[in-house]
Write a structure and sequence with these properties.
This protein is α/β, with parallel strands linked by helices. It is built from 10 helices and 19 strands.
Length: about 450
C-alpha cells in the first residue's frame, strides 16, 4: 500500500506539473491575445483619428453646426450661416492695393464629355453655364471698363465662342444657346490657352491679361509640350486661374502658380460659385519698378488717354455706326473723330481711342480705395445713446442679444470706424459690395 500511495503521489505530481505548465502556456497565450487585441484597438483608434481623405474633414460631425432654438426651429441657425457667409469677404483687411482697373479676361469653358457627369446637379455642364452667366453679369458690374471673351475646348480643339467685348449682353448671348455648346470629346488646355493668348497679344501694357479656366476633366489632349505654352504665358504676363470640378491636376496647379493666378477645386455647388466670384475683384498688380539715377526704385506709373463721348438723343436722325455698320438713332460720338458707336465703354474702331463715361470711370475707382470694414459691436455697453435703428435703412435693431459667434455681432450692429454710425448686417454687406461708399461719412 505505501508504494502504491507513493506511486499515486508521483503520478499526481506529474499531472500537476503538466497542468501547471499548460496553465502557464494558456495564460501566456491569453496575455498575448489581450495584447494583440489592445494593439488592434489602438490601431483602430489611430485610424479613426487620422483621416484617410482630405474631403472627409468637411463632413466630420457636420450636424453639430446646425442646432435648434428654444422653439425647436432651425431658422435661426440657417440665418446665422447665411450671415456668416455674407460677411466672409468683409472680414478680410481692406487696404489700398495697386490694382488694374482696365481688365481683359478670356473665359475658357470645358465642353468635353466629362462635363455631363451628374455629381453636380443637374449636370456639371448646366451648372457651369448658369454660374458663368451670373459671373459675367457680376464681373461687368464691378469692372465696367473691362472686356470678356469666351473660348471653349472640346474634341481635342479650342474654338472661339464669343469675341472679346465690353458689352455684357453680347457676351451673355454667345453662351445662351445650349445646343451649340453641347459637350463632346476630350479637352485641350494647350489649344485653348494659345487661342486666348493670341486674342490678347495686341493689348496695351496698362491693361491686365487674364484667363479663367473652368475645367471638369482629368485629362487634356495637347498637340505639343504645354510647358512651352506656359513659358510664353509667363513672358506675356498672362495671369491664369483655374476652377477644377473633378480633382487637382499638377499641370493646372503649375499654370496658376507660375503665372500668379488662383487655383481651387470645387467641393460642391456652393463652393464652385464662391471660387468663381472670388475672381470678380481685380487682382493686385505685379511689382514693376524702374531704377532712377539715384539708385532708388520707384513704381512704374503710366498715363493713358481716354475720351468722354457725347450721347445722341433718341430723336436724332438715323446714321451708320462704325461698330456694327447698322443704321441707328441712339449712340455716342467719339470726341476725337466724331464716329458713332453704339455702347460704351469701348475702343473706337476708327481712331482707336478708349471711350468711357464718367460713371464707369468712377465706379472702377472704388477698387483702389475700398470702404473700411465695419467693426462688429460685441457688448450692449458699447451701444451709443440714442442709436436704436440702422443709420442707412432705419430698421430697428434687435433688443435681445444673440449668442456670440465668430465674425458676427450679438446685438446686430456694425459700426463704421470713421463716422461711428451703426448699421445692420444687410446694409453692411450692401455698402461694401454695391455702394462702395459709407452713407454716414461719405468715404
Amino acid at each position: 500500500m505505501p508504494p502504491k500511495h507513493i506511486d499515486d503521489m508521483d503520478i499526481d505530481s506529474d499531472y500537476s506539473d503538466i497542468s501547471i505548465e499548460l496553465g502557464n502556456i494558456s495564460k501566456g497565450r491569453n496575455r498575448k491575445g489581450k495584447a494583440t487585441d489592445k494593439r488592434k484597438q489602438d490601431k483602430g483608434k489611430a485610424k479613426a483619428k487620422e483621416q484617410a481623405y482630405t474631403w472627409e474633414a468637411s463632413f466630420t460631425r457636420s450636424w453639430d453646426t446646425v442646432q435648434e432654438d428654444e422653439a425647436g426651429s432651425l431658422q435661426t441657425s440657417v440665418e446665422d450661416l447665411m450671415a456668416r457667409g455674407r460677411r466672409r469677404r468683409l472680414l478680410a483687411p481692406a487696404s489700398a492695393i495697386r490694382r488694374t482697373i482696365i481688365r481683359h479676361l478670356i473665359l475658357i469653358l470645358d465642353l468635353s464629355s466629362a462635363m455631363m457627369d451628374r455629381d453636380m446637379r443637374p449636370t456639371r455642364f448646366d451648372l457651369m453655364l448658369q454660374y458663368a452667366r451670373e459671373f459675367i453679369t457680376e464681373w461687368f458690374d464691378q469692372n465696367p471698363l473691362g472686356q470678356i471673351g469666351v473660348v471653349g475646348m472640346r474634341a481635342g480643339l479650342g474654338e472661339r465662342i464669343g469675341e472679346m467685348s465690353g458689352n455684357p449682353q453680347e457676351v451673355l448671348k454667345s453662351i445662351s444657346d445650349r445646343i451649340k455648346l453641347e459637350p463632346t470629346g476630350e479637352p485641350s488646355l494647350q489649344n485653348a490657352i494659345e487661342i486666348a493668348c493670341g486674342t490678347m497679344s495686341h493689348l496695351p501694357t496698362h491693361s491686365s491679361r487674364e484667363i479663367l479656366i473652368i475645367f471638369g476633366s482629368l485629362t487634356t489632349c495637347d498637340p505639343g509640350n504645354i510647358h512651352d505654352t506656359l513659358e510664353s504665358c509667363f513672358k506675356s504676363k498672362v495671369r491664369i486661374s483655374v476652377v477644377a470640378l473633378a480633382a487637382e491636376m499638377k499641370i493646372c496647379r503649375d499654370l496658376c502658380d507660375k503665372t500668379g493666378g488662383q487655383f481651387g477645386v470645387a467641393m460642391n455647388e456652393g463652393h464652385f460659385k464662391d471660387l468663381l466670384f472670388e475672381l470678380v475683384p481685380p487682382p493686385a498688380q505685379r511689382a514693376i519698378t524702374r531704377t532712377a539715377g539715384t539708385g532708388t526704385t520707384n513704381p512704374a506709373a503710366d498715363l493713358m488717354m481716354m475720351g468722354f463721348p457725347t450721347r445722341l438723343p433718341d430723336a436724332s436722325p438715323r446714321s451708320l455706326c462704325v461698330c456694327h455698320s447698322e443704321m441707328k438713332s441712339q449712340g455716342f460720338l467719339c470726341p476725337r473723330c466724331l464716329s458713332k458707336v453704339c455702347d460704351v465703354p469701348t475702343d473706337c474702331d476708327i481712331c482707336g481711342l478708349m471711350i468711357v463715361s464718367s460713371p464707369h470711370l468712377a465706379r472702377s475707382y472704388h477698387h483702389l480705395f475700398p470702404v473700411k470694414p465695419y467693426d462688429a459691436v460685441q457688448n450692449e455697453s458699447d451701444i451709443l445713446e440714442g442709436s436704436t435703428a440702422c443709420h442707412a435703412c432705419a430698421r430697428p435693431f434687435p433688443t435681445k442679444a444673440a449668442p456670440a459667434k465668430e465674425g458676427l455681432s450679438p446685438v446686430g450692429r456694425y459700426r463704421c470706424p470713421d463716422c461711428h454710425n451703426d448699421f445692420c448686417s444687410e446694409c453692411d454687406v450692401f455698402v461694401h459690395d454695391v455702394v462702395h461708399c459709407c452713407p454716414g461719412c461719405g468715404k
